[in-house]
Every structure is written in C-alpha cells, then in structure tokens.
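Why does residue order matter? Because the sequence determines the fold. Keep that principle in mind as you read this record.
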Amino acid sequence: MKDVSHSGVTCCNSQEYKRNYREHMVREFLRDGEGDSSPRENPSIRSHYTALTIAREPWSRQGAEHGAVGCANTSNGPATVTAQTLFRPDEDGRTPRVVVLVGALGMGKTTIVRKVMVEWGEGTLHEQFDCVFCIDCKSIALLKEASVADLVSQCCPHQRVPAGNILDDQKILFIFDAFEALRFSLIQPEAELSSDPREVKPLETTLMSLLKRTVLPEASLLITTRPTALQSLRRCLEGEYYAEILGFSAAMREEYFHRYFENTNKAEMAFRFARDNEILYSLCIIPIMSWTVCTILEQELCRKKNLLECSKSTTRMTMSYLSQLLKHRDRDNPQVLQRFLLQLCSLAADGIWKHKVLFEEKEIRDHGLDQPDLLPLFLNEKISKESGDHGKVYGFSHLHLQEFFAAMFYVLEDDEETVSDLVGHEKDINKLLESYSESRKDLNVTVQFLFGLVNQKSIEYVDKTIGCRISPQAREELLKWLQGRHRGISHPGQGLKISELDTFHFLFEMNEKSFVQSALGHFSDLDLQDMKLTLYNQMALSFCIQQWAGLGCITLRGCSFRWQDPGVELDLLVPCSGASGAGGRPGAIAELRQEELHCPIHLLCRALRHPGSALRVLRLGSCRLTGACCPALAAQLLERPHLTCLDLSDNDLGADGILQLCQQLRHPACPLRTLGLSTDGLSQDVLQELATLQALKPDLKIGNLLEHDVPEVGAMARLPCHRGVLPGGRKALPSFRRTPLL
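Structure:
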C-alpha cells in the first residue's frame, strides 16, 4: 500500500478538516452497515438503536475473580456500561485507555461501533476525543504492509490523511472492528515495532505497534472481537478493560420491538406474541434473534394474517436465525458444513444429557469441530486464567440454541463417512423420549424442537439451506410416542384422555393438521386442571382442538385464562391492514373488539366452531369467568348440536350474563341437558327466569356441580337435579359452592 502521507495531496486546515471529517462520519455510519444488507437489517442508528447490556471490568480483576471472559454473569462485580460510557472512569476513578468489546456473532458489536461514530460525529458524546478513526479489519485483512497513516486514510473522505501534525498531538480513538478477521500472529520482536505513524511496515507490525503503544502512545483503543481472538489479544495488551455484550435486557427487548416496527399497534402485537412464547422470548436476548423474529412477524402482518394463526414456529424462527449465521461462511464446500453441523449436533446432545454447557478444547477436537472458519459461528470461546492446561472452553450463545442443535442430532440422517467419526451420546430418539416421560423434564425444549424439525416445511428448509436430510423415521417415532404416552392415565370404561399441556405445545410446534389428527385420533377427552393458560398456551390448545374430530369432553376446571392487556392482545386477533382495519370494515372490527374485549375464552370458543365438532361436555368451573364470556358461550349452545353438559360453576357471570344464556337455552334446538351454575347472590328476577326456563324444559338440570357429581360422557342421566326455584321466585336454587381452585 502506498504511503499517502507523501502523495502530494493537499488538505484544508486542521479545524476545517475535522469539521468535514465529522460530517463525513455521520453520513457514512448512518447508512446501512453492509452493502448487501437490507434496510431493515441495518436501519438508522438514530431511530433504531436499542441499548445493550454490557459488563465492563479490567482483565486482572476479571480473570482472578470470575475466571473467564465470555461468561454472562455480572452478579459479583462487573460494572454495567453502555456504548456511551465505555471510556468513562471506573469506580476507582481510572479511565480506560484500551477497551476490548467482546461478543458472539450477532450480538451487536458493529452496531455499537456505528452508534459511537455517529454520536462523536454529531458532537453529542465522546467529546474527550478530538478524532475517532474506525478501521474495519475485514477490509484491511489482505494488506501486506501499511503505516498508521495509511490505515487512517481508509477512514477519511477521498482517502486523504489529515494535514499537519493531527496524528501527533490530538486525543485520538482508534476503533478496530471485527478484530478476529486478522488471522495472523501478533507476536512481533520489540525491535521491529514502529514509533512513527507514517512509517510503512508489515501490517501485523504496524498493528502491534499500536497495541503495544510504541506509536501514538496517548491514543485510546476500542477493539471489537468475537471471543476467538481474545487469547492473542491478551498477550499483547496491558491495562486493558474487557466489556462483554450480554444482549438485550427484558425492557430493552420490548423497546427493540417498538423501534423496529415504528408503529405502536404492530409493535405491541409482535411483542406480546414473542413474550408469551417462553423459548422465543428467551432467545430474543440475542439481538440478531430479535431482528429475525421481528422480520418474520412483520412478514406475517404484511400478508394480512393475524398472529394467532402465525405458522412460523419457534423452530422455524430459530432456523431463520441459523440462516443469518450461515451468511458469513464459505459456500464453496457444502459438504464441509454438513459434516461440521452433524458433529456440532453430537456435541450439543452430549452436553444436554450431561447437563453440560461448557466444553474443553479436547472435546472440540474429538468432535472434529476445530475449524476456525466455522467454529466461531456457533460456539463462543471463553478464556480462563484458572483453567490450567485446558486453555480455552467453549459454549453456545444460549442454552436454547444448544437444545436446538441437540434435537437436530436425533433427526438428521447420517452419511456413512460421518457415522464412524461421531462421538458422544448414542443416537436413540426413543431413549430421549422415554427419559423425558419418566424423569428428565429438563429435556422439554429439546423434545419441542424435535417436533418442529420434522414438520414438512422444516424438512424442505433444512435440505435447501444446508443440504442435510431429516429422517422420515423420526417423524414416525414421534407420532407413535404421542399416541402411546397418555394411554396409561385413563380409567377403565372412560375415553382416553390427554392431561399434559406439553402435548399440545409439541403438536403446535409441529403445526401440521394431518399429523395432529393422527396423533389425537385415539383420544376423546381433554383434562387440564388448575393451570394458568397464557395466550401462547391457548393458541396451542385452540390449534389442536380445531383438528380434533373425536373430542367429546373438555375439562378446564380451575384454569385461568391470562390476558394481561386485553385491549392490546385482542389486536392479535385481527389482521392489520391500514386505517380501514381488516377487509375494509372498520366498523365490524370495532364491534368485534368491543364484544370480545374482556372475553378470555374467545380462542377456545372460536376453536370449537370448527365443522364436525362432536363436543358433548364442556367444564369451565372455577375459571374466573365473567358475564363478558356469556355471548361466546351462548353461541356454543346452538352451534354445538351435541353439547349436552356445560359446567360454569363457581364463576361470577352476573345477571346479564345468565340472562343471555337463558335466552339461548329457551331455543327448541338447544341440546343442553345439564348447566352448572352458581346462583348465590342472584336477583329475584334472574331466579324467576331460571324457574321459568326449567318449567319450559323440565329435563334441563341446573345447579352448582360438585366435582364428584360431574358426569362422564354418556352418563347424563345419573346427575343429581336441583330444582329449588318456585314460581314467583319465593325460593332460590340451592348452591353447593366448593372452594374455588385458584
């Protein structure tokens, strides 16, 4: 590279140059980060930047007390800083001169750099520096030689070096972004190091001169890197501070969704959807995962689908995240990637079985994962001062990602060459499922990913994206396991029932109607009691109920239907299509919202409307229902031709709600024979209406159904009858109130 400091290019005076340079930096770093990125992937820093949680401390204290760089544990000392305070004095009054910003792929290192550059250019922050030069290490990696001035010229407008002695007497911050891209040795003889910023040397010598502070010793350094470059950096730095990006806090995850969508309603829809999915929400601590989720949900909204029918499972979103990682790899040899992934999945599964999240270098080598081009995409390197001969340890960016790759281990087909090389746990999907059923409930997420991976679209996606095949046998094994796991809990003479909520999550993750129908075809009862049903739980239940043709009895006694913010969460129910609402009928949408605003069982009732429903018993006792639920329940009385028992005992339905039910019960086509109802505190008018109803339909039994009185399907005739209301309302119906199941 030519030493442009002697090229004869004349520059303007120092002050004017600095002003022009600041303006240039703002323009450059407000633009999209990479030329091939979409505007959504690298949006404006001003409007879209969301603060990340960053833990900063000196290497000496961090190594002595915490043992490893890269461990997301700030409970015992590391100070939390922001992009704006990286160079602020610490609690002891010491001002960092060298800060190493550590983060895995997708954690936001380059975004923080953009934020620093824009704020310095605009003069709002980092005013302790007269000049800030940001050097993209990927762009200089192929240079053979350069001076410090040459590197600076890469940052400047028209590649012109600042005039005069600006490099000598100014307070300068050098930023080296993506330092891991420089894959050469930083061990250089002291005698070779330079003290002249305009002296041309081999690139590694020039960089070492900056790191060792033999050139521009008063300059500050900000180095961003993946954990893979930490060990070599540690050898050549002194007095450095390490700042680890831990990701988005809970509050910042919500803020990110709002900044991404720039529309309050859409942001609330998307965030509620993600928050109610515990796995997905946990993964959104990783910034690129938050971006992936927002991008997918935005596409769903643009297609005018409501998010309650979103077909993108947690597995599909995680695979989209995987695609983002794979954008950074070499595409010339797909077989190498396939082989690497199979070995990575083996490591992940071995760790899940052994409750292990950190892996030593020997384990990495034994699994054939010591490949510098691929390893950093999936595993974070963590360097420990106290690890003895082990040197380095490695871990996945998030436990759920390890669980995802562990699930892939069980469903991916092996080629003959790879099978002989795999080490670790035995590949037996039935053993995994059996262990989960018996005692290993910590395998829940791994099992859920199994179902998501054998979805037909997932099979096609994996084949197209990475060229790996998912075994059709795994799909059959999962179906067989689901069909058999609940048979032992049903009593003789009763229909086969499902009483585990996870079954519905597995099927919802699978998201194939035909598979759900096959899995549930042998069962007739759903029995979940005393559970808090989140919106995501209700979505899973509703999806399965719609495909469950043989469902005859639903028991949800004591369950609560969680709608934390009904006004917002109801927006999930309707498509978002501009000012006119859905289908150009804003009035209809507004009416729908008013009617269902406080009806927590709306999803359940909507699911029960599917054609061919054979539901005969619906038990919703002690579910904290109010009169707002009665319109939806009343509609069920006529729409369900086989519904003969509806238990609403121990719910405060109010006078208006009960009267709405009575209106439907009067209809000759209403098949109901038993109504569980609490009558305590009802007015004489309501009691009179109930008496009139029973006189009209003497076979209709009304009362507070005790748990042991509630009949099984086909046993209606054995239910005790309470008909204590006399004409004129002189005597109220008896109420056998039991303690609510809260």
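Residues 334-353 form the longest helix (20 residues).
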